[in-house]
Amino acid sequence: MRRSVRFLVIALAWAVMVAAGAACGIAGEPPAAEERGPGADRSDFRGTVMPFLARHCASCHGPGKPQGGLNLESLRDEGSLRSRRRSWQKIREYIEGGIMPPEESPQPERAAVDRVAGAIKLALEREDCGKASQPGRVTMRRLNRAEYNNTIRDLFGVDFHAADDFPGDDVGYGFDNMGDVLGMPPLLMERYMNAAESIATRAIQVGPFSPGQERSESHRRILFREPTSAGEYPDAARAILEPFVSRAYRRPVTRAELDRLVSLVEMAIADGERFEEGIQLAVRVILVSPNFLYRLELDNRPRGIPPRGSRRPGAEPIGEYELASRLSYFLWSTMPDERLFHLAGDGKLRTPAVLADEVRRMVLDPRARALVDNFAMQWLQIRNLRTISPDRERYPSFDEPLRQAMFRETELFFAEILREDRSILDLLDTDFTYLNERLARHYGIPGVKGDEFRRVRLTNSVRGGLLTQASVLTVTSNPNRTSPVKRGRWVLEQLLGAPPPPPPPDVTPLKEDRGVLMAATMRKRMELHRAQASCAVCHNRLDPLGFGLENFDGLGAWRDRDGGQPVDASGTLPSGQSFRGPAELKAIIKARPREFGRCMTEKMLTYALGRGLDEPDRCAVDRIVKDLEANEYRFSVLLRGIVTSDPFLKRSYGP
Questions:
Q1: Handedness of CA 32, 36, 42, 46 (dihedral sign)
Q2: Cα dist from 207 to 203, 210, 273, whole Å
């Protein structure tokens, strides 16, 4: 077929984007959460919490220029327990943890703090989230590079790595699979077209074959039927394309869609091309269709749900095939397999017991490595390890094998916690890790030989858990020194879900000249920042956490001295808890399981949904965390809670 006609066909395939965007609700913000709901008696809340806030907090968080952006005037109404749920949770955490009121302010008695924190917690738990919560709007989600490569691999049975040449994906909320930031720049569209042509040409072989010559695996997978005459071309094309396009679109192909693709094959043959070239053209069109490149959640209503336009705004279950895609791209970063497709077709996938069984099956599948590569390594910010460049003069032992070993330890460690269904708290501290000789030597652990990684039992509390792994310690350091601030922020953001506000714009930078670096410990150099009132509030939270890891240098190797002075790895948290060294710090963090469980739940739910969490999503998070608490924080409980939550199973609709 002439090149101009081919490009016209590809352009027509993209014309459905306008309609798809409208159907998916790509434009517009989520509907506001209902301001009020059925409430329990809040007299204890009003009589205990509000007077406490008025006495200890209102002077800094009142109208005008409230510190930290928190204006308590907006939280006076009882409906704010739902509409500002996250703010109330933060208030409880800050009061209970001793972060607020600040040290220079009059401090309440501990009994009063406990009463107020308990009253806020009880009020939030009593709030009926279920009846009014909205599961969030669907945004069309383009396949990111990892998802594209994996989907092509499973569609053709060949690992082409076509997306390796694509532009990098933008990141939102810490992940590169967020629908709102995955745009379609012209360069990417051009790469898609080139990749489609290359893949179709490599996957489907054209031309006569000599006796005994083998067709490629992808050719046999797609062209399982060879027409013997021109009269068989339409039926053969239909038989070949129907299963292929259904897998590519991740739902059954419609008759109209199939007819259009078959007509392309017939047009190619009429233009003098071979049958295989006609199939190649159809495959190219499929691979640049938004039905393939985007995860479109159109109006595939389960039975009994009235059509769009006849309903008032609310929520509805997503379709079975949409659920199969949500599940497979969450756990595998790829298209659903035959079993998921079959369960969706039978209408059984939504059943809670079936969902739980599928999660167990999928976690044990090799494709579950995608959850490690694409969720864990982004959540923990370990992907940054690929591009960091430590100062070679300061750290002459750093080389590429050590970089790769750091990365691999964290991958294998997280994968075992997932695969063995251990408690997610083991991520914080446990008695084993994965090492090869290079990394074991870096850690000073004897008896590990060779390049192969193996599970190693740790004999002391110095190592164990994410906080003491070289990957984490390196990405939270500066090129020429450790950074207690970066390490403290990492703990707060990635483990406890309590990120500090950004620093003021006029902060004096920490001196980095070599004379200062060699003259004093990092603890002494950081005193300058805490001396500034505008910095003290945040640094009192950040610095102790970072100082607790100062026995590890900028590459995560153990050290006893810094700047010629003994390392002081002790600290006192705003809650009043004190520790000496990383082992005691890990124990304190692990003793806050609810905070870590909530943080990891929020991170994983964000990743699973491909969007940031809204206030109504907090109710689903609360239920998952409560279930985790009741089940020893097992990894399977977290996964099950996410895939059976309303945000995962439903979507909002309406004007």
A1: positive
A2: 13, 10, 11
Instruction: State mean pLDDT over 184-194.
Output: 94
The Cα–Cα gap between 474 and 14 comes to 45
Which of 76, 45, 35, 85 minimizes the C-alpha distance to 58? 76
Q: In the chain, what is the straight-line distance between the N-terminal and C-terminal CA atoms, in Å?
A: 44
- Look up tokens 């890790």; give the residue: 433
Confidence of residue 104 (pLDDT cuts 50, 70, 90): confident
Confidence of residue 507 (pLDDT cuts 50, 70, 90): low
> Both tokens of residue 48?
């205990």
What residue ranges in 304-428 does DSSP mark as E strands? 314-317
Q: Is 639 exposed, middle or buried (0-12, 13-18, 19+ CB in 10 A)?
A: buried
Please, which pLDDT band fits residue 484 given cuts at 50, 70 and 90? very high
Q: Is pLDDT at 506 greater than 50 in this prediction?
A: yes
Q: What is the pLDDT of residues 22-76, one digit of tens each?
A: 434 333 333 333 333 333 345 567 788 888 888 888 778 877 667 767 877 778 7
Q: What is the pLDDT of residue 67?
A: 74
Written as one string, the DSSP assignment of 632-644 is: TTBHHHHHHHHHT
C-alpha–C-alpha distance, residues 169 and 143, integer Å: 10
Interatomic CA distance for residues 229 and 227, integer angstroms: 6
Whether cis (ω within 30° of 0) applies to the bond prior to 655 is no
Q: Which amino acid appears at position 187 of this protein?
A: L
CA atoms within 13 A on the CB side of 157: 10
**What is the sign of the dihedral through the CA atoms of 547, 548, 552 and 555?**
negative
More confident residue, 126 or 51: 51
- pLDDT digit string, tens, across residues 599-651: 999 999 999 999 999 877 888 998 999 999 999 999 999 999 999 999 999 98
Distances (CA, A) of 248 to 8, 23, 166, 388, 410: 21, 20, 20, 37, 33
Q: Phi first, then psi: what are they for 610, rounded to 5°?
A: 70, 30
| CB < 8 Å & 24+ apart, contacts of 75-79 | 76/50, 77/35, 78/36, 78/39, 78/42, 78/45, 78/46, 79/35, 79/36, 79/37
Token couple for 282: 């159809």
- pLDDT of residue 353 exceeding 90: yes
In sequence order, which ranges of 139-222 are alpha helices (DSSP H)? 145-156, 186-203, 217-222
- The CA dihedral of 15, 18, 23, 29, to the nearest 10 degrees, is 150
CB distance 440 to 458 below 8 Å: no
Q: Percent helix, strand and coil across the chain, each rounded to 5? A: 55, 5, 40
Check residue 29 and report its DSSP letter: P
